[in-house]
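Issue 218. Parser rejects a valid record. Input:
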Amino acid sequence: MELLEQVKKSQRISHDALDDVLLSDIEAAAGELSRAGVYPYTAEGSIIENPLICKAIELYVKGMEDFEEKGSTYMASFEKLRDAMALSGEYIAQRINYTDNDKKDA
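Output the parser choked on:
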């Protein structure tokens, strides 16, 4: 399932009117993960289809949109998951591999 569709389904959104806002939040979430040392992108530049990365992005979007008036709860959950992923080392390795591939292409 495409990440946008997953986010919409998790918030019970069935229309396309908010797609631009949600896509902006998805990109902001990916940027926040990257800032914390969790690299959410593939070598092609799309967001990795990893369950934890997708869940973190979903939590971030719910927090930003104050889903069910629990935005601060969702944002706290995002921050805890982001920090745990950053400490695990598994998601940092993906960034190192991506960086190495970039150097080969240059």
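Fixed in the parser; the record now loads. Helices lie at 3-10, 19-35, 51-64, 71-88, 90-105.
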